[in-house]
Amino acid sequence: MADEEKVRLPRTYLPNKLGDNGIVLIPQPSDDPADPLNWPTGKKLKLLAVLCIAAFSGTAGALAGDIIYPVQAAVYKKTPFELSYSVSAALAGTAGGPLIFAPLAVIFGRPSVVFWSLLACLGCGIWAACMTGENDYTLFVISRLLSGVFGSLPSNVGASMLLDVFFLHQRGRVFVCYSLSNTSGFIVAPTVGGFILKSQAWPVCFWWTVALLGVAALLVFGLLDETGYDRKSGSISQPTEAAIGKKIWTFFSVAQLDSRSISLLAKHAAIPFLIGLSPAPMLAGIFIMVFFGWTLLLYITLPVYLQSPVDEGGYGFAPVQNAAFSFSSWFALIAAQIFGVAFNDAFPLWICRRFYQKIWAPEIRLYSLVLPLTTMPIGLAISAAALAHHYHFMVLALGVFIAAFSGLLAHPVIVNYVVECFTAYSVEATIIVTLYRLGWGIVLVFIAGAWEARLGVGWMFGMAAIFSMACGLIMVVLVRNGSALRSLTISKSLVSTEADEGVEWPILI
């Protein structure tokens, strides 16, 4: 049978604009050069790079204290586990902050929200660095909470800008870069902090993020353009082409403020909850909450195990040794980045061609989870055995590498999937995925001490390995029934995919 006969065409139309290798451009770009889909590749990559730097800087500013809290325990007269609550506060801010402030993009614009949130996170870094007194513990935790609130906005608001600029067949690679730039802040900032502690006082671990956030804010101000484009009127969301006027309008003006905009603000504040409580995104959220939560638990509690004395079951590491150990997570990040760029578009497109008669559906993205679902239990099991039997730290490093690689590889896939189910509300979709992703990890930190005391560290992470295997059942349900589940969304007007409303897109001609 010829290829043309393999493509089912009931209620299907063949777009006339194709990309490389005969791939249909989804969405179809207009003929207007100002359409962000028609921007030169260099301009698109510049926008991606700036958003990645902003996302990384915000997360690094929020999680800069992850590795130093065992040292701070002596200052505040608290136990290391009590000091780990400051990390949980930053994670709570990261999860909840976008729910409160991301809707402001409706009024002030997305580049403006990214810019001012970076400056606010910068201020929180200065605040944390100044909390050096014995009685400053509560204020320090509050500073970490607010740094998470503001630092998380660039990694959520930017998702919709990427959808404005990149086509469907490019998004797997794009979201790998964007999502891993966000999560790399969890990894890089503590490593840098550990090396700083070798020769400097702990407040310096926050001062370097202040400089980083300042540079990121300048890059956003100088290089980030608005990407909103009205495809009905053919106009971009910028009233002037003059460089100075454009910057003033983008970062210092109110794009829309009237009675209608206030109601729109309330609507956008409610949409993440409507999305998050709908069947398909809820299942995807539960998956990443459980799957990524164990990675967070391992990463947050590692400083306690590594820096505790050997006679107490730890490894007796100094902070600089802890920082060196965290390179296992760096290698995991690099491996996930390389693998994701190579396969997160190519593999789903192959699945689409081979098993779906070249007709695209968002659930095809989820096939990229086969590898992390296989490797996560292995990584957690190795980590559990190493900690329980006090194996050589390189065995533990191997387990951490595999577990981190799995979590980092899975996260962009879930973000991409949920965003492609709600393309008209991609910011809100990203927000709810972030909330799910961090929710379980935050809770686990508070119960980890009691859990370990009752069952031991081996069984704690061993059970995590078992639970991560069960996550595969969730993905089977989503892949097989995703289209039907999307139709059960609480508010059906929210659902907007490139394959909705009865239109089937032949992704490959």
Indicate the proportion of strand residues: under 5%
Terminal Cα span: 14 Å
Helix content: 55-70%
For the biggest sheet, the summary is: 2 strands, antiparallel
Number of helices: 20
Structural class: mainly alpha
- What is the average of the pLDDT values? 84
Low-confidence stretches: 1-14
Shape assignment: globular
Strand order of the largest sheet: 1-2
What is the string of SSEs from the N terminus onward?
HHHHHHHHHHEEHHHHHHHHHH
Give the tally of β-strands.
Answer: 2
The rounded Rg comes to 23 Å
Tell me what you see in this structure.
The protein is an all-alpha fold and 509 residues long. The protein contains 20 helices and two strands. Strands 1-2 form a two-stranded antiparallel ribbon. Helix 6 packs antiparallel against helix 8 (154-165) and helix 8 runs antiparallel to helix 9 (171-197).
Concise summary:
The chain is an all-alpha fold and 509 residues long. The chain has 20 helices and two strands.
